[in-house]
């Protein structure tokens, strides 16, 4: 047993069985113990090392379980076939951490993605969570499209408030718009070109690039996406925000919606993806019915989320699939599970069906209406020559100063301590309105609007 040159360390930092276990692994990996080499018996090794029998048994047990050793009846333990690694190179030195340059800390009160969580319905949400925890069946695997009570509540709400016509079996619930968009693209022909609004979402363009999906920008004018440009683009799919276009804030009229539907029916396989991202908030009229409700033949794919109306962390979004795509979805994805917790689904279902969500929308809608009015008034007072548009709905507006450039205004806002975005940042072609800022107001308290706009004016006048 002279060749078994293991010396235990008795400092107590590493258990003896683990020291022996690691020693044998190292000997095998370095090729000093080869296939079919016989190891000492447990009793002999324990006596040789001066350790307890249980120490050797523990080490041999782990080595056998992990496939380094095998127990041969009446012969003891032998080494299993393991390819030796030889001497491993020393790990490279850790790279020296280079601190990132400190970015200026800017106020995000004009962010278009802001949501005021102070109006989150904490008490109602907590009570519904407590009730859901008492339902043990929610610990079981749920339906891949989402639990039926939530899909039923969604259908009822969307029909009443958005004019959407759908059945619960057409609804797919998922953890966020990004996940559902990824799923949807897998159902659509990868060779089809997708038309995207220009100007439009940064994130949507990036997603199409990441998915390596062919796309083409389609210009947007005062009535929304241009159907004539769409027809000439070669696109077979189109992604639109007709109720409140981002970022221009225009609402697509009924006539143009009909033109888009006519385009979809001209060829089989064409679909319109309708993103109804902030349709709940309108300040000059009732919400415009969704385009999906006008479609009697299943050519509109409807997608929505609760991230803007409740909170960004409520990662619940939903698709309404036409029947043809629904059949394909079930054939390909029915084996999976919903990506949203069943407890969260149950809470949201009851929040919808009890009428609490509608009350919450009225409350938060009144709050945002006041903030929109405060920002509009402050801009009109500070900039008599400025033009404001898109402020009759949603959570952002456009502010244009004739004779100015977007970049100049964005830099001025940054010098005043505010993060802002120019309309040109959302354009793939020429900006339709030079000198335009896209300003969100959901995160701007009405009391702060005048001071924030005053800071902007001073900085812009100075630039």
Automatic annotation (TrEMBL):
<comment type="similarity">
    <text>In the C-terminal section; belongs to the class-I pyridoxal-phosphate-dependent aminotransferase family.</text>
</comment>
<dbReference type="InterPro" id="IPR004839">
    <property type="entry name" value="Aminotransferase_I/II_large"/>
</dbReference>
<keyword id="KW-0808">Transferase</keyword>
<dbReference type="GO" id="GO:0003700">
    <property type="term" value="F:DNA-binding transcription factor activity"/>
</dbReference>
<keyword id="KW-0663">Pyridoxal phosphate</keyword>
<keyword id="KW-0805">Transcription regulation</keyword>
<dbReference type="Pfam" id="PF00155">
    <property type="entry name" value="Aminotran_1_2"/>
</dbReference>
<keyword id="KW-0804">Transcription</keyword>
<protein>
    <submittedName>
        <fullName>PLP-dependent aminotransferase family protein</fullName>
    </submittedName>
</protein>
<dbReference type="InterPro" id="IPR051446">
    <property type="entry name" value="HTH_trans_reg/aminotransferase"/>
</dbReference>
<dbReference type="InterPro" id="IPR036388">
    <property type="entry name" value="WH-like_DNA-bd_sf"/>
</dbReference>
<dbReference type="GO" id="GO:0008483">
    <property type="term" value="F:transaminase activity"/>
</dbReference>
<dbReference type="GO" id="GO:0003677">
    <property type="term" value="F:DNA binding"/>
</dbReference>
<dbReference type="Pfam" id="PF00392">
    <property type="entry name" value="GntR"/>
</dbReference>
<dbReference type="InterPro" id="IPR000524">
    <property type="entry name" value="Tscrpt_reg_HTH_GntR"/>
</dbReference>
<keyword id="KW-0032">Aminotransferase</keyword>
<dbReference type="GO" id="GO:0030170">
    <property type="term" value="F:pyridoxal phosphate binding"/>
</dbReference>
<dbReference type="InterPro" id="IPR015424">
    <property type="entry name" value="PyrdxlP-dep_Trfase"/>
</dbReference>
<feature type="domain" description="HTH gntR-type">
    <location>
        <begin position="14"/>
        <end position="82"/>
    </location>
</feature>
<keyword id="KW-0238">DNA-binding</keyword>
<dbReference type="InterPro" id="IPR015421">
    <property type="entry name" value="PyrdxlP-dep_Trfase_major"/>
</dbReference>
<dbReference type="InterPro" id="IPR036390">
    <property type="entry name" value="WH_DNA-bd_sf"/>
</dbReference>
């Amino acid at each position: 047993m002279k060749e078994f040159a293991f010396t235990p360390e008795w400092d107590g930092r590493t258990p003896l069985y683990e020291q022996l276990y690691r020693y044998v692994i190292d000997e095998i990996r370095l090729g000093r113990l080869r296939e079919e080499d016989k190891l000492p018996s447990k009793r002999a090794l324990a006596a040789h090392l001066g350790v307890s029998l249980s120490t050797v048994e523990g080490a041999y047990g782990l080595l056998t379980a992990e496939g380094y050793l095998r127990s041969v009846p009446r012969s003891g333990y032998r080494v299993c076939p393991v390819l030796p690694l030889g001497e491993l190179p020393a790990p490279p030195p850790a790279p020296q951490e280079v601190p990132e340059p400190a970015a200026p800390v800017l106020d995000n009160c004009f962010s278009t993605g802001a949501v005021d969580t102070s109006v989150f319905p904490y008490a109602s949400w907590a009570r519904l969570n407590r009730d859901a925890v008492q339902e043990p069946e929610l610990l079981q695997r749920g339906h891949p499209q989402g639990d039926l009570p939530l899909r039923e509540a969604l259908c009822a709400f969307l029909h009443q408030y958005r004019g959407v016509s759908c059945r619960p079996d057409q609804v797919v619930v998922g953890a966020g718009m990004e996940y559902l968009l990824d799923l949807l693209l897998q159902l659509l022909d990868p060779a089809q070109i997708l038309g995207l609004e220009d100007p439009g979402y940064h994130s949507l363009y990036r997603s199409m690039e990441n998915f390596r999906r062919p796309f083409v920008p389609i210009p947007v004018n005062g009535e929304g996406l241009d159907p004539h440009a769409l027809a000439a683009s070669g696109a077979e799919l189109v992604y639109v925000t007709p109720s409140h276009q981002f970022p221009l804030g225009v609402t697509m009229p009924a006539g143009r919606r009909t033109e888009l539907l006519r385009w979809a029916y001209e060829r089989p396989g064409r679909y319109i993806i309708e993103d109804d991202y902030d349709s709940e908030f309108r300040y000059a009229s009732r919400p415009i019915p969704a385009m999906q409700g006008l479609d009697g033949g299943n050519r509109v794919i409807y997608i929505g989320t609760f991230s803007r109306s409740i909170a960004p962390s409520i990662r619940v979004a939903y698709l309404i699939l036409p029947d043809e795509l629904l059949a394909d979805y079930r054939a390909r994805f029915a084996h999976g599970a919903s990506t949203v917790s069943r407890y969260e689904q149950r809470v949201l279902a009851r929040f919808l069906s009890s009428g609490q969500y509608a009350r919450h929308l009225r409350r938060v809608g009144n709050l945002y209406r006041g903030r929109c009015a405060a920002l509009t008034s402050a801009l009109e007072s500070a900039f008599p020559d400025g033009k404001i548009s898109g402020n009759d709905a949603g959570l952002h507006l456009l502010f244009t100063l004739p004779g100015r450039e977007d970049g100049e205004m964005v830099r001025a806002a940054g010098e005043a301590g505010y993060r802002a975005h120019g309309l040109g940042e959302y354009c793939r072609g020429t900006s339709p309105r030079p000198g335009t800022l896209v300003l969100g107001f959901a995160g701007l308290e009405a009391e702060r609007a005048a001071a924030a706009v005053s800071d902007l004016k001073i900085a812009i006048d100075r630039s």
